[in-house]
């Protein structure tokens, strides 16, 4: 299967929709420019708005391998770039000693051969054969500042430096997507090397399209109820009652649960019974009271 020719923003929108990802024009423009300019794209936004899903969809559209680097506090360079297979190197050295080899310089060259190199996500992305890989650096804000500094060479030049080997440059330029939930501000040096897009919660029509595509078993009426209810949850004055509003992933999971329960019409009792799908924190589940559910389920007045 060959990748479609993404010669325009509209073509990209259609291609993403073809794999179940519904991007608005601003997001599609950011992705299109990242592809054309061969620049990393930094996506920031609340959890559950589709940042990670975009990288997954893009890999499908481009028919490229998706390589994921999941960031976390304490992530080390060796876990992101490479490490040596020390056990195999030690066996090689013992075997050489057994043969009476005394040339230490030659032995050092032998143990730092390619076959003893364990490639981690960054190096895998750089060495992926044409057309290249899609590298997802997920939740980069969870890593620490030294790790951000380590990423600069890769983000700016698509290369990394390995002391025992030298500089490794990209075989084919990877499509690189960084995501951040903005638990902390990223350094300006990282942002300067990337194109930037703030990914917000979707508008009603886009969320409705996502629910329709991801939950084909939902009736049109039920899909509309889900989109309307979750959209109002995120809006004022209701949003202030919750620590974290439901993301797109929660909307889809809620719709699937309602279908599994053979729900025809969403009512306050169903909302109460399934609140743990929309929210993942005890306080938010408790905040979604029956009275609030009644208000949320009231028809939205038509604009005059």
Describe this structure as you would to a colleague.
The protein is 48% helix and 13% strand. It is an alpha/beta fold and 304 residues long. The protein folds into three domains: 9-73 and 127-198, Rossmann fold; 82-119, no CATH class; 204-297. The strands form three sheets. The chain has a five-stranded parallel β-sheet, sandwiched between helices. A two-stranded antiparallel sheet has the order 3-4. The protein has a two-stranded antiparallel ribbon with strand order 6-7. Helix 1 crosses helix 2 and helix 11 (220-233) packs across helix 12. The longest helix has 14 residues, at 220-233. The mean pLDDT is 90. It comes from Acidovorax carolinensis. This is ATPase. InterPro entries: AAA+_ATPase, ATPase_dyneun-rel_AAA, CbbQ/NirQ/NorQ/GpvN, P-loop_NTPase.
CATH superfamily of the largest domain: P-loop containing nucleotide triphosphate hydrolases
Average predicted local confidence, pLDDT: 90
How much helix, percentage-wise, in residues? 40-55%
Total strands: the figure is 9
* Coarse shape: elongated
CATH class of the largest domain: Alpha Beta
- Backbone structural class: alpha/beta
Strand order of the largest sheet: 2-5-8-1-9
Oligomeric state of the chains present here = single chain
Largest sheet: 5 strands, parallel
- Element string (H = helix, E = strand): HHEHEHEHHEHEHEEEHEHHHHHHH
Strand content is 5-15%
CATH 2nd-level architecture of the largest domain: 3-Layer(aba) Sandwich
Distance between the termini: 51 Å
How many separate helices? 16
The radius of gyration over CA amounts to 24 Å
Total domain modules = 3
CATH topology of the largest domain: Rossmann fold
Unreliable stretches (pLDDT < 50, length at least 5) are none
